[in-house]
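User: quick one, sequence for these tokens?
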């Protein structure tokens, strides 16, 4: 049957689309053509620049996780290094402080020992160097325990002093250690004289770190800042050892003056002391066992 429009029945109503192979060939040809044009004439430079500007934010966003991870690892690595360096510097600082403190202690100790040796050479004394071990456990007494005893030649009643003056007397002995009663122990007596004029008396410990010069009449010539030294009248303490300095004189207390003195030496603060024995010049030796 003939078509109403008079068209031939063998002609297709629609054109068929290109096959995938044809599209691939056409795209390849176009790509090669574009590459040749770009290499030979730089025809796509402007297009490429425009595309790079458009795609830059996308590239940055894609690179951001990698950048964050890299910067984070660098930050934590740097933080760990800084912390380790700070710890090392703090350790060095503490070591330097310890060395400085040790050096200062050694210098003070050496100076003290030099002064002790100088004092021992000025008198006819037999001396025994001792080291303070600890304070006596009795809280109501002012005593020290030192590291030398009867085996080293320490005897009861011997004077104990440091580089400044009299500290106390040996009041208890054991073979290896001795106990020293400080001159500030309550009612501990030491015969003294005023260095300025030779006035003699006896000082007694008050138990509070001070001494009292008792049994002197109000008219006795004792003044503020007078230095009291051992008189040597007891036969145990060598004469002339500094004991205390007068800090107050009250002549209106009863029949006698009330004279208070402060020790020139504080044995509680010393580590090294000397036990001394007054001997005749021909027997005197410096140093002890």
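Assistant:
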């Amino acid at each position: 049957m003939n078509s109403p429009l008079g068209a031939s029945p063998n002609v297709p109503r629609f054109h068929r689309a290109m096959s995938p192979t044809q599209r691939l060939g056409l795209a390849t040809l176009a790509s090669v053509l574009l590459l040749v044009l770009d290499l030979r004439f730089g025809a796509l430079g402007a297009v490429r620049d425009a595309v790079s500007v458009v795609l830059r934010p996308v590239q940055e966003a894609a690179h951001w996780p990698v950048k964050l991870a890299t910067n984070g690892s660098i930050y934590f690595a740097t933080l760990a290094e800084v912390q380790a360096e700070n710890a090392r510097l703090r350790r060095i600082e503490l070591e330097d402080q310890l060395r400085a403190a040790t050096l200062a202690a050694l210098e003070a100790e050496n100076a003290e020992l030099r002064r002790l040796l100088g004092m021992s050479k000025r008198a006819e004394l037999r001396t025994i160097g001792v080291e303070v071990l600890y304070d006596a456990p009795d809280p109501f007494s002012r005593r020290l325990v030192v590291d030398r005893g009867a085996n080293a030649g320490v005897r009861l009643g011997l004077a104990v002093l440091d580089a400044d003056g009299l500290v106390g007397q040996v009041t208890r002995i054991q073979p290896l250690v001795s106990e020293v009663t400080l001159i500030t122990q309550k009612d501990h007596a030491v015969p003294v004289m005023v260095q300025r004029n030779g006035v003699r008396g006896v000082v007694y410990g008050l138990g509070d770190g001070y001494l009292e010069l008792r049994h002197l009449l109000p008219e006795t010539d004792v003044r503020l800042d007078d230095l009291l030294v051992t008189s040597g009248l007891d036969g145990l303490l060598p004469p002339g050892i500094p004991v205390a300095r007068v800090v107050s004189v009250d002549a209106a207390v009863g029949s006698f003056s009330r004279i208070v003195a402060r020790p020139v030496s504080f044995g509680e603060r010393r580590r090294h002391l000397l036990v001394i024995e007054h001997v005749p010049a021909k027997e005197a030796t410096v140093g002890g066992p």
